[in-house]
Structures are given as structure tokens and as C-alpha cells.
Design a protein that fits this description.
Helix content is 39%, strand content 15%. It has nine helices and seven strands, in the order E-E-H-E-H-E-H-E-H-H-H-H-E-H-E-H. Strands 1-3-2-4-5-6-7 form a seven-stranded mixed β-sheet, sandwiched between helices. Helix 2 crosses helix 3, helix 4 packs antiparallel against helix 6 and helix 5 crosses helix 6. The longest helix has 25 residues. The protein is globular.
């Protein structure tokens, strides 16, 4: 069943961009990106995905159900940016409706969870819920983030709860949208975070996708962790890479 998502829109630019957050996050986590995109002339929409933020919880959390919710917000976006889980949802929505967006930017997207690592990844995702869900705890866990990002992430964790995270991982076994990504029919930029800093996209996979499909551009944001839009010292590099991807794509390592 399609759910009505809580969503906000900022700006009045002619170009429309949709921002899709990652697992256990919410739309507010894009706050800095929203401000900069609006200043650059974009009209920005950011929803809370099902079971996250102010959107309703669900009985099921399969990719196609997440995507159906997002498609209900509209299609024909000039661009869609998806981080982590949001990247997988963007690809799934595009596969269901090629008119979903004219361009996609996949920020360290969660395209593949190797089955042998699934339990370890689930444990890692759920560890945050075993700690105090406070800004202070988030600052200790993520020392490269700013205070506002830590406060918003703590709020997002309290809103979604562990069960929606667990069900998202379990419902999408095997977690693999590589074939769908490699087959995209619109210009798509994959901006990977640095694997040595916590990035989850293997460089070999990114290079394979770019070699397979000329519409795919692959780049690596050197030194950036998985949530580059939250990293204080690297945010300018991240936003520069995002801007290039939105305007024309970037195939070079940053």
C-alpha cells in the first residue's frame, strides 16, 4: 500500500530537485544542502521515507514500496539525489517509471549488501539504537559532523526506531540493485565516499557501472565518510561535486 509521505519544499526556482535520505535519517538531514541548492536556483523537495521522520510507519519496507511512495510525490523531476538507501530507492523508482527524473545523483548509494556481510551490517546499523539517542552521543560517534547534524540524526533515530531499520534489511534480501543501476536510461552520477573512510561503494563496482553504461559517471570523494553532506571540513568539496553532477556530471576523483 502506498503511503502519503511527509515532505517539504523550499525555493521557487524553475528546476526541481528531489532529495531522498538514507536509512534511519530524515529529510531535515539535508538542511545545509537545501540552503545551498535554493541559493543556486533550485526548487527543492525532501520527503521523509516510510517509517522515517514524520511519515507513517509501514507493515513492509521493500524497495518497490519505498519507491511507490516516492513516485506518488510526482515525476518529471529535473534531478533526484539519493543518499545510501535513498540511492537504491531512486534507482528502483527510475526502473518503475523512466520518466521519474531527467538526471540522478547517487551519493554513496546502498546498491549491494553481500549476503555474507548482512548480519554484520544489520548489527552495525542497530548499534546506534543501543546508545543514548542524544546529540551528545552522536557527536561522540561522528566527530567529523557538526552539532546540528548530530542533533538531527539523533532525532531521526528516535523517530524511525530499530524495527523499521531491521525490516528494511530483512525485506530486501538479496539486497542488490546493481543490474538496475547499470541499466539506467538517464544521466546518472555516482558520487562514492572514500572506502578508507567508511564509503560503501566498491571502486571496482563503480568503475564497472561506468564502463557498462555511458550514461553513468563515477567519482570518489576523497577522504569523505558515508554521509559526506554532514562532514564539516569536507562539505565544500562534497557540494562542489554535487553541483558538477547536477549540471554536467563528473568522472574524475575529487
Amino acid at each position: 500500500m502506498t503511503l502519503q509521505l511527509a515532505a517539504r519544499t523550499w525555493g521557487s526556482g524553475e528546476r526541481r530537485v528531489l532529495l531522498l535520505h538514507g536509512i534511519s535519517s530524515n529529510a531535515r538531514g539535508w538542511w545545509r544542502v537545501v540552503d545551498d541548492l535554493v541559493s543556486a536556483g533550485w526548487a527543492v523537495t525532501a520527503p521523509d521515507l516510510r517509517g522515517h521522520g514524520d511519515s507513517p510507519a509501514a507493515d513492509s519496507y521493500r524497495f518497490n514500496e519505498y519507491a511507490d511512495d516516492v513516485l506518488a510525490l510526482g515525476t518529471g523531476w529535473d534531478a533526484v539525489v539519493g543518499h545510501s538507501l535513498g540511492g537504491a530507492i531512486a534507482v528502483t523508482a527510475h526502473t518503475a517509471d523512466p520518466g521519474f527524473a531527467a538526471r540522478m545523483v547517487l551519493q554513496d548509494p546502498a546498491l549491494l549488501v553481500v549476503e555474507a556481510s548482512r548480519d554484520d551490517i544489520t548489527k552495525w546499523l542497530l548499534e546506534s539504537f543501543a546508545r543514548p539517542l542524544t546529540a551528545g552521543a552522536m557527536e561522540e560517534e561522528n566527530p567529523t559532523w557538526g552539532p546540528e547534524d548530530c542533533a538531527i540524526k539523533a532525532e531521526a533515530l528516535r523517530q524511525c526506531g530499530a524495527e523499521s531499520v531491521r525490516q528494511t534489511v530483512e525485506s530486501n534480501r538479496p539486497w542488490n540493485v546493481l543490474a538496475e543501476t547499470a541499466a539506467v536510461t538517464v544521466p546518472t552520477s555516482v558520487i562514492a565516499s572514500d572506502p578508507e573512510a567508511g564509503g560503501i561503494v566498491a571502486i571496482t563496482i563503480g568503475e564497472w557501472m561506468a564502463a557498462t553504461n555511458p550514461l553513468i559517471e563515477f567519482s570518489v570523494l576523497s577522504g569523505a565518510g558515508h554521509s559526506a553532506h554532514r562532514e564539516v571540513l569536507l562539505y565544500d568539496d562534497y557540494f562542489a561535486a554535487l553541483t558538477r553532477a547536477l549540471e554536467e556530471g563528473s568522472g574524475d576523483e575529487v
